[in-house]
Design a protein that fits this description.
4 strands; 4 helices; single chain; 4-stranded antiparallel β-sheet; alpha+beta; 64% helix
Length: 168
Amino acid sequence: MADNEDQGEGQGKKKPGLVVTLAIVLVLSGVAGAGGWMLGGVLAPQVAVEEEAAAETADAGEEGEAEGEAENKPRENLIPLDPITTNLSYPSDSWIRIEVSLLFGGAPDQALADLIHQDVLTYLRTVSLQQIEGPRGFQYLRDDLRERVKLRSEGRVNDILFRTFVIE
């Protein structure tokens, strides 16, 4: 008999534990839902403003077309260089292939682009694999090439844009 009473007390304790767990899960779900709703309210006005700006631009007519032409203008100043494939300085059996484009500030100059192409090729032959490993190494390579291009072009090239970057 005493055993039956102990079992009854044990079952009685398990049920409130289950109810408490369910209550906690429901409360936490409500808190998470409210937090998501509040975050959506904060972000939603920004999306609506962007949609309104896009609609105003589309309705602008001739002004919108003039702006579209202005947006296409920098693309005329973009000169893609031929792919550069060379071996690295160390280990010498590692190869690098990059395709880059030059963004000129003014009128593009093909002769200057060819000179920069040769300069980038010469620089890449001095780079070791350890120097360009990982995201930080790639960032250093990009910064070095950007600086060399700006110096070589005497400021006529604003930026160098990477299209592909492969190391084998």
